[in-house]
Amino acid sequence: MSREKKRARTARPAARRRWSSAFPDDVLAVVYRMVTSLRDRVRFAAVCRSWRAAARGAPPRAALPWLLLEPCNCSRWKRLHCPEDGAMVWLQLPRGSRRLIGCHDGGWVISTAPLRIANLFSGAKVTLPEKPAGVFSESKIVFSNPPSSGDCILATVNEHRGIALCRVDGPDSVWTRQTCKSCGTIDDITFCNGELYGLTKYNGKVTKFEMGVDKHGAPVVTDEIHLSCSAWMDNIGEKTSYIFDLRGKLAMAIRTQWSLDHEPFFKVFELVDIHDDELAVSDKHTWIEVTSLGDHALFLGQTFSRAVPVPADKLGHVERNHIYYSCCLNPSDDVPSGVLRTFSNGCSRQKYYRGDDRKKDITNDDVKRIKSTGYFVKGSPYSSMWILPPDM
């Protein structure tokens, strides 16, 4: 090969490097601010050093949740669906992570068998003690704060209708468990303003779990305050319910057949204190319907639910005042028309669907509703799981 050809071949990579670094910093900053998708922002920062510096210098944009299609299977590689642009992203879990049962803002997840906390985007890990037998049913774990904050408490429902707690602060942490006094089964739990709440299955009653520490400094439930809410939900048939933080207030979403003339749809309610006297806290609350989420979108799932603000200039398929939920299809359920993905991973075969609620905001009998989009899986007992990436 001639010397001139060698020069030409070696010059091409350098030329490619030069074009990306030739843009002024202020131009890169303007371009980066115009990129709204988190996936595209990650790509932008990966181009070269100057582009990465522009990304770091820009104010972060609030992230929107991604959907982890397979929270439980025999593969470390997971598929993440981005509702913003419909793209599919591959992500690798830490070795040994088989099933994810909880998530916190910023990409934090917790897996079982073995029990561990990791960040899917930064790779950071947090130590966590193994659970003793019978501590929880491996259905859902919630976080009070980011696990790296030094002030994070994990909470879950154990196998004996009780609450199990663990402080995430090092190898000396232990799980504590208490049996609930309530005769009902806890259907969902969440932290709201640092307080732990449980939702009783079927009747929508709420229990506030007061927390303290035992003689060893481990978190424990010291008291249960049963908030007497309206009993109108006793007359509702089969339903699916979630509790979550909505703009700093405890809220609940219920999907059921609200009207005999229509298919099941969601309604959202906010827990409201109806008296000013703070002494009688056990019988002063009621659920008030929320007919609009405003600039928020609501993401609901078996292991993670969150109301997230959607920027006004956000492009893509995520809308304000909209509910996005994930669930499993039963053999008797109607199959949605929109196929999202079909694949076999060697352990099982699943088929994923996306179905939009195309009904009007108000039905013919004036039953108000918030539109929703469902993500369904057929062939798996585990519904897809929402993951909230870090702001970028």
From TrEMBL:
SUPFAM superfamilies: F-box domain
InterPro entries the UniProt entry points to: F-box-like_dom_sf (IPR036047), KIB1-4_b-propeller (IPR005174)
Pfam families (UniProt xref): Beta-prop_KIB1-4
Domain called KIB1-4 beta-propeller: residue spans: 86-333
Superkingdom of source: Eukaryota
Name of the protein in question: KIB1-4 beta-propeller domain-containing protein
Organism: Triticum aestivum (Wheat)
Organism classification: Eukaryota, Viridiplantae, Streptophyta, Embryophyta, Tracheophyta
